[in-house]
Amino acid sequence: MADLVKLKEIMIDLKEEEVYELLTELMSAGGSDAQAALETCQEAMTEIGNRFETGVYFLGDLLYSSEIMSAAVDILKPALSAGSTVKLGKLVICTVKGDIHDIGKNIVKGMLEAAGFDVIDLGIDVLPEKIVATAAAEDVKIVALSGVLTLALRSMQDVVDAFVAAGTRNDVKIIIGGNPVTVDACAVIGADEWANSPQKGVEVCRVWATS
Ligand code: B12
For a tag on the chain, would you pick the N or C end, based on fewer CB atoms within 10 A? Predict the structure, then answer.
């Protein structure tokens, strides 16, 4: 078993090289702890966020942590995404307007692709109109929205409203995900589903695509 306590510590302390070394060793040992390691890194990111909020860390530290986290995901990826040969169709994903956080979105994207989805990634800070237009142009039936900032909830609501305004709300299923998303937020926003874990998100989309 990899030393996840140490992993969390060195991740929080932004010891980049040590993090890569530990994760590379974990992968050399077969990668069976990759999922647990990813969750540990995510816990560390929460603590890094807390340190930012309390003035212990600065924006530069947050940026640095995101570089380490992205590289960590790349190291772990081969063990996380057992490729599927099933074809589940197209899906649009993005981080909503006003929010530029994309590490979580990229993890979800990778897992959707591994499950067999053909993922159209619109990127970050995406306007509702662009999502609605892409869904129509690409004949996409599933839209996955990511947001980490509290204000992302408002933007998610704007996306649902934009589908309603375009008269295409019933053509798509919408799933929202990210830290601020809750069952209550989902109800207020009028999305079809919500998830904080990529696993649940992929499962919801798989059910939609096959039913
Ligand atoms: C790294 C980071 C950054 C990086 C982002 C780099 C990047 N490329 O993403 C940078 C430095 C750019 C950044 C900027 C800012 N940040 Co920031 N950031 C973080 C931090 C530390 C980690 C986020 C992260 O990557 N976590 C790891 C990933 C893997 O987790 P995740 O995003 O939650 O995603 C998982 C799940 O949520 C889920 N998921 C996510 N999306 C979806 C979608 C679907 C469909 C599904 C099913 C699941 C799902 O699956 C993912 C994998 O498990 C968080 C702290 C935190 N608690 O999250 C603060 C945090 C989000 N940031 C915060 C703030 C305030 C900011 C800034 C405003 C700071 C500033 N003064 O400029 C700016 C905002 C810029 C903007 N307009 O977006 C606050 C937000 C407060 C709030 N409640 O709104 C936080 C919470 C820090 C804090 N505690 O204060 N940030």
Answer: C
Element (H, E) at 148: none
> Strands 173-177 and 193-195: what pairing?
parallel
For 53, phi and psi rounded to 5 degrees?
-60, -35
pLDDT in tens, the chain (211 residues): 779 999 999 999 999 999 999 999 999 999 999 989 999 998 999 899 999 999 999 999 999 999 999 999 899 988 887 666 788 999 999 999 999 999 999 989 988 988 899 999 999 999 999 999 999 999 999 999 999 999 999 999 999 999 999 999 999 999 999 999 999 999 999 999 999 999 899 999 999 999 8
Burial class (CB in 10 A: 0-12, 13-18, 19+), 191: buried
Nearest protein CA to atom 36 of ligand 1, as residue? 178
Asked if residue 181 and residue 94 are part of one domain, the reply reads yes
Ligand 1: residues within 6 Å at CB? 42, 45-46, 48-50, 52-53, 59, 62-63, 65-66, 69, 98-105, 107-108, 144, 146, 148-150, 175, 177-179, 195-196, 198, 201
Cα 184 to ligand 1 centroid, rounded to whole Å: 20
Cα–Cα dist 186/182, whole Å: 6
181 and 123 within one domain: yes
Q: Which residue has the tokens 């992205």?
A: 70
What Rg value do the Cα atoms of the chain yield, rounded? 18
